[in-house]
Each structure stands twice: as structure tokens, then as C-alpha cells.
Amino acid sequence: LRVISLGRKNYLFFGSDSGGDRAALMYTLIGSCKLNGGAPEAYLRHVLAIIADHPINKIKELLPWNLTIPAE
User: Fold this and answer.
1) DSSP per residue, 31-54
2) Residue 67 belongs to some domain of the structure
3) In angstroms, rounded to a whole number, what is the distance separating the alpha carbons of residues 56 and 52?
4) Structure pTM?
5) Number of domains the chain is built from
6) Closest Cα to residue 63, out of 46, 17, 7?
């Protein structure tokens, strides 16, 4: 919660409600990754690298609690 309160001034520049929704989504993904013992940066880097070729009907496999991040 400290991170959210520190960034409050920056949130004024999201430009729209959908920008705030996207920020909330990112906070949720990063928080879920931390709760499941993962490194958020490595998780996001890995998912963004493979998501284009991943079938849409198997998207749940990419959630932080279902994915094993390869060692870097």
C-alpha cells in the first residue's frame, strides 16, 4: 500500500479511467506474483516474451500461481 500512496501524484496523469484500470491490473499481477514467491520483473519479462504465441484458451497457464519461471 505504501507504493500506491507514494505514486498518487503520478496517477493524475493516467488520462482516463481506463488508465487507472490498467494500473490496478498491473498492481494485481505484481502483487500475486510476490504472494506466490515469484520475482515480478522476471515473471512479466517471461510472460510478455511468450504470450503472443500462447493459445488464448490456455491463458490461465500464464497466471503467477500456474507458471514456473525459468532461471535467468
Assistant:
1) HHHHHTT--HHHHHHHHHHHGGGS
2) no
3) 9
4) 0.67
5) 1
6) 46
User: CA nearest 63: which of 31, 33, 22?
Assistant: 33
Judge whether 70 lies within some domain: no
The span from the CA of 21 to the CA of 19, in Å, is 5
3 state SS of 20: helix
User: What's the domain range around 17?
Assistant: 2-62
Cell triple for 41? 520483473
Q: Output the nine-digit C-alpha cell for 69.
A: 519461471
In a domain, 37, yes or no: yes
- pLDDT of 55 reads 94
Q: What is the pLDDT of residue 27?
A: 84
Summarised one tens digit per residue, pLDDT across range 13-26 is: 666 777 778 878 88
DSSP code per residue over 55-67: -GGGGGGGSTTT-
Report yes or no on 26 lying in a domain: yes
